[in-house]
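REQUEST ID: PR-0412
SUBMITTED BY: lab tech R.K.
PRIORITY: routine
TASK: structure prediction, single protein chain
INPUT:
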Amino acid sequence: MRRDQGTGSGRHDSPARPPRPGNLPLELNAFVGRTGELADLAAALEAGRLVTVTGVGGVGKSRLAVRAASDAAPPDGAWLVELAAVRDPDLVEHAVADALRLTDHTHRTPRKVLLDHLAEREVLLVVDGFEHLVEACSSLVGELLHRSPGLRVLAVGRRPLDTCGERIFPLAPLPAPDAAALFADRAAAGLPGFVLDEENEADVAELCRRLDGIPLAVELAAGRLRALSPAQLLSRLDDRFALLTGVRRDVPPRHQTLRTAIGWSHELCTADERLLWARLSVFCGPFDLEAAEYICSGDGLHADDVLDVLGELLAQSVVTREEGPTGVRYRMLDTVRAYGADWLEATGDAARMRRRHRDWYMGLATWCELDWFSPRQARVAELVDCELPNLRGALEYCLTEPDETHLGQYLAGSLWFFWVGCGRLAEGRHWLDRALELDGDHDDSRLKALWVLGYVAVLQGDTVAALSALQECKDEAERTGSAIATAYAVHRIGCLALLADDMERAETLLRSALEQYREIGELNSNVLMGQVELAMALAFRGELADAVELCEDVRQVCEDHGERWTLAYALYVLGFAAWTRGEAATARELVMRCLALDHAFNDLLGTVLAIELLALFTAVEGDPAEAAVLQGAASRIWPSVGLPLFGSGNFGGPHELCETQAREQLGDARYEECVAAGARLAPDAAVSRALGTGPVPHAKTRRPPHHEGRTGDGLKQGELRPGQRA
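STATUS: complete
OUTPUT:
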């Protein structure tokens, strides 16, 4: 059950139309009523660029907004941003970027990334659950609307955003006929065969009236029909209203009504169900059964009983079940969760539950870090992505509770593989910076956070911050005798030298780091990446045989361990070497596999490097127009990664060679036209295009291959090494 769901159809069956971009959830049950409200909301969205649907919790705001957004169907998509699980105002911009599926490796602020992305698009953002983040949301939404003429925002909350130009759309409860229809629909879903008839119609109507037509309350009531008749529900509701009405005089009557409805449902639960309801409120987002069994068991609730009790809460619509990439997960409506949280606080058990929650997700992150170097790497990436709200909650706990700082530093550092390998550099930088601003009392945790911060900053192109963190890590590691932190610091300083085209220093530092790794017995994706980076340095210096030997070794280790992320970079170097030797077919095969792997992990850095090489290959194969399209596609991705090609002559060599050949064969005007066509491709489309599986937005001007593999300017493949400037 989604927050505030419950409105549904009277019934609205939209005509079939081609799918548009966006992330709106599919409706899983009927949309009852709200015909007039939908029309009025559509008119409000036409008249203004910011509309806020307001109303009491549970009145159906979210469901109505999602349906209206789906009907609006703007050209660049309708996108849902759910903020209920976000507690830190600084993460609002990250949450919006996540919802839009934006990945950015640079040190640009998320707000700048959003402004750049939305500047020329026609997008509808549905911003849901912002009540606890009003100031941050108002600031962000105001600037986005001011700077993005094609943007419209449909906000959903219990209060307005109070932003200039805002149109308020207050949503009332369902009228009696629609409330009864909603009750009947949801009751039939849980109790097959249930229908409104002469025997129960009056009781259902009175029940809905007493619940003020609030959809959430109606659904909770319908969920009890498994055990009680409508008449029994009505009689029990009388008792619960008498018990809870007027408990709080400082809230609106309808809020009291909703609290009464939830409280009544709570009272109908058994002691075990009430206990689990309260303890489940500690989760910050969807959770799985294993987490619930560990965190919520004990002190009156045995772990073996959690599944059965959870099943009862599912039957009563207190908890909902959803399928995801990692399997079955569970979710509580935010309003229901908040009610349980109040009860948890009242029991005095909230602090212990938060510690157990922290312990579980600390263990999950530790296990995922180890399992990243395994055949389960892709599953680890999906799992951490699904658990991100709860990991954020654990990080927040560690960084706000006394004596927990070192655990926050450890957790932020342990997630290095997610920040770096799965396109989350900006958020990783946020948590690492926060963790290192605090004084912890464990050197190892701080050292790990330092080298991971340095790694993230290196990839963002923030050289000053990277060198500062890595040098501090190296100095402190040598002072405390931490061989492992020393090795990681030296490794990442070597990576900085590589990107700065100081190949001699890069080779020295990377060889030193690899030797230190061997001495301490360290073997994981980081170690293999160090070997790949050393191979890059050697390849750029023309020492191809040694570079290939290093990468073939990495390739074998990756195959033995099922590692795919580092393998992609090894394939990139092997493809580069094959191209330089004039082995065009082999080079293309290697780099295309590299691209497919990088894209699967959402690694934009590896993705754009591979596209740059494939552009060069395409130019030499006789299709300069397609090569220019790929260069345009890469140009769109680079701003989200960092300085294009790191400002490096070695990494930039293939690009310059490709551009020179394409311009000579196409002419400047046609070249720029093709680049512009490529720049209009979204990253997913660019990858499909580069892999040969995407549509062609321009008329190709393919030329036949030149004799003896010569390029358009008469050079043989590899005659001008791609690591050199054209």
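NOTES: The two ends are 59 Å apart (CA to CA).
REVIEWED BY: pending
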